Amino acid sequence: MLTALRRRWKDTTQSWLLARQGRDADRVELKRGRIYILPTGFGIAYAVLVFGMLLGAMNYSNSMAFMLAFLLAALFLLAMHHAHRNLLGLTLERGRVESPFAGQQAEFTVRVLNPSPTARWGVASDTEGQPAYIVDVPALDSATLPLPVSAPTRGVLTVPSARIYTRHPFGLFQAWGVLHMDLRVIVYPAPAPDAPRPPLASGEGRGTMEAAGQDDFSGLSDYRGGESPRHIAWKAYARDDQLRVKQFSGALQATQWFDYASLGGISHEQRLSVLCRWVLDADRDGFRYGVRLPDRTVVPGSGEVHRRQCLEALALSGLKQ
């Protein structure tokens, strides 16, 4: 029941913050209206202790006890001011994130820029179920704050909000700001650890071997997206700033079709895991390859862009977009 109440309180708070602040752009400045502050558990205990000292000083009319109580109360207020000031004016930028495989973590990042001549200490990130990351941001400089999020399944992983907070200087108060940036990433299927070898027999729905030269140089052709960087004629590019690809003849280069329909007797997710393993192995070996899925076909190609297209097709197969 306590867990359900906490979840309900968190969802209600997030909805209120989203309605108050709206969606954020990729660059956000933490102004006064976006920073919230409350005492921590330690801060509440500290305040109770100071109040008890004040009652004792009043009861015994002890001037030294009054002075100590007022000094500690002033320290309490000073900590509140500095905790709020530690976040005020910081600019937060959304960083790039690499697509993970299912079962890994998506490493979102936020770049924290400090435009003031005062360093900001102990700026931390908060993502559910993950340890906090704490960075110090030098004056007139920046720092990168990780926001790790678990990615248990393939598809589109969306983080509705992220929290940036600080408890500097004494841990008596916690000041925080909430971001509602467009934090999302495509999660690829987990590659099968023991996938069978892909079929090589010719025919519809099977792997095929197509002729492509890799032996004797036969000329240059215009670069097309997805071509392997190893085939780019860099010397020609240095001469005329035009990307061209070397063409060879004489030997056979494998062009492999990876067909969803060729895998039988296993579940949908297992088929996608096997196809993911085949794509990674073919890319590693420098083969040209294509992928056939029930809802999409990726024509044969090679290179990093083509590999990403194939993996994204596998990640989104059968999902509503």
Supply the number of helical segments: 6
Name given to the CATH homologous superfamily of the largest domain: Immunoglobulins
CATH class of the largest domain: Mainly Beta
Our Rg estimate from Cα atoms comes to: 29 Å
The mean pLDDT is 83
Tell me the distance between the termini. Answer: 35 Å
Structural domains: how many: 2
Question: What is CATH's topology name of the largest domain?
Answer: Immunoglobulin-like
Spatial order of the strands forming the largest sheet: 2-10-9-5-6
Q: Give the overall shape, derived from the CA principal axes.
A: elongated
For the biggest sheet, the summary is: 5 strands, antiparallel
Would you count the extended β strands for me? 16
> Helix/strand/pairing class, anyone?
alpha+beta
Order of helices and strands: HEEHHEEEEEEEEEEHEEHEEH
Given as residue ranges, the uncertain stretches (5+ residues, pLDDT < 50) are 201-214
Q: Could you say what the CATH architecture of the largest domain is?
A: Sandwich
Question: Percentage of helical residues?
Answer: 25-40%
